[in-house]
Amino acid sequence: MMGSEDPPNKPVSVPKRRLRAVFAADVANFSGQVSVSETRGFMNLSSVLRVGRDELDRYEGVLISTPGDGLFALFESAVSAVNCALAIQDRLGHQSEAGAMPLRIGIHLGEVLFDGDAPFGETLNIAARLEGLADPGGILVSGAVVDATAARVSATFESRGVPRLKNIPRRIGTFSVKPASCPPSQAVDVADEDQLDHTMRFSRRRSPTVSIDELNE
Description:
By secondary structure, the chain is of the alpha+beta class. 31% of the residues lie in helices and 26% in strands. The chain has 6 helices and 9 strands; from the N terminus they run E-H-H-E-E-H-E-E-H-E-H-E-E-E-H. It has helices at 30-36, 38-58, 78-93, 122-133, 143-149, 212-216; strands at residues 16-27, 62-65, 70-75, 103-115, 118-120, 139-142, 155-159, 174-179, 209-211. Strands 1, 2, 3, 4, 5, 6, 7, 8 and 9 form a 9-stranded mixed sheet that branches. Helix 1 runs antiparallel to helix 2 and helix 2 runs antiparallel to helix 3 (78-93). It is globular and about 60 Å long. The chain starts with 15 loop residues before the first strand and ends with a helix. The model is unreliable at 186-217 (pLDDT under 50).
């Protein structure tokens, strides 16, 4: 009898994998700033996030989340993600109203799972963990980002070792990023390179601090 049959099963959506640079940013000690002055704290936060959004648009980053006092975005290009981070920190460094609210930025490059337009997976978690370890006003990236960008951006990459990232089973090398004009501080040796995930390695023939000039020799 027509109409009595069950409707055909709807096809199950299969998550797609796409290579992306994941950008995570967060204001350092935002709760402490707000506890001093709520009004000034939120005004300064608005200024910081506006700079972040402006530079994300400029470098074609796709904003996927604004978790309170932060920004979460995806880039098709790791070079664009690093240049965006450098531009944001440079602008914030010249804005007095944002000076009391330094931003921490973490970037990781890897495959991101998409369920429709919604991204998820370990790559996002790693970027968030790197952001949490970044210095206030600094940028911390994974070795995969260094591999993809070191010869293509005007910056210095300084080893910050291989920390244990919460709920991340693999050990991933981390590097702070500074404009090429900034002298690096004392380098930190990378602990036991053989324990790194091989996709995160890059050649460090001279020292854990890698500059563009060294890589082009």
